[in-house]
Amino acid sequence: MATREEEGLILSLENEGVLHNALTRVGLPRSHPDYDDYLQDARLIYAQYYAHYGTPLDTPSEREKFNRLAGWFVFLRLIKRRGQLRAHRTRLADYQTEEFAALRTLAIAAIDVTDTPLIDQLAMSEAMTKLWRTASDPERTLLRLRAIGLSDREIAPLIALTPRSVGRMRKRLAQRYHDLVD
Questions:
Q1: What kind of fold does domain 114-181 have according to CATH?
Q2: Per-residue pLDDT reduced to its tens digit, 28-75
Q3: Fewer CB within a 10 Å sphere, N or C end of the chain?
């Protein structure tokens, strides 16, 4: 015997138009690259809603009522998920923008680039990107905090090191950076 969720999945396949309408209301055209993923999510949401729905679907009017409610429920859940995804993407973009700004500030602070040829500036930028990718989490934190102008003494308690250890870490990073530029 099938569980309520399995019955809900079967019912979602029989009433796939409800799911397509919910996706259309969310603003996803069928040509969207993630449409199939969202459709699968919609099926699961529909099945979960069916599993918790208490009224039996014996008559066509009960089935029609259920599909209207399920379509609305699927729409609301997908809107919530898309909103969470957008918020996550926004936070990620903000973080990446801050990270890039910190790297640029570091590169400018480390070397006076005003009289440096453009090709050398590009090499410095590539070196900073490579350094960032190979840096450990404490080293990245150090780079970020130096970029906003904090001293070794101010950084030390923030990353649970002594000022002397912070200075040594900073000097190692500077040496790695210069090795990458050369």
A1: Arc Repressor Mutant, subunit A (1.10.10)
A2: 888 988 888 889 989 988 888 888 887 778 898 988 998 898 888 888
A3: N
